[in-house]
Design goal:
elongated, single chain, mainly alpha
Amino acid sequence: MNSLPTRLNLSKRGMNICPKCPTCDQEVESIPQSLIYYESARHVWRMWMGCPINFGADLWDFTDVALKILHDGTTQDLEIFSVTAWSIWYSRNQNVFENTNHSPEQVWSIPKALWWDYKEPDALCNRSQHHETIRWEAPPLECTRLM
């Protein structure tokens, strides 16, 4: 699970890099810190109306959060969580490497748009696949066959 190249993971892999957060330079940049507990990430998570869990609760690992969402919510909630986490990491990279800052509203708008872009065509495909089963039936006995 520790495949995300946070500063902590990179330093554990032998890179000569300070494990502190490149944005605040105070906390160690781990996956939970970057995607869940960092203040800008918390602002994004607060925008999720109907979120099945409380992100302000105990400190959880990223996998624990995903499992808790799946247990207390729906697969749709897990999809929203995953895409939102990706958006937070993307925003972090934009900040670190491009010096571009996104507001929490901008970060939150990305997963909403991505999720809708994915779900809308999927729903259309599923709707068009629900056809009545058509099968051959013998004509009534009183019908005459013409050749």
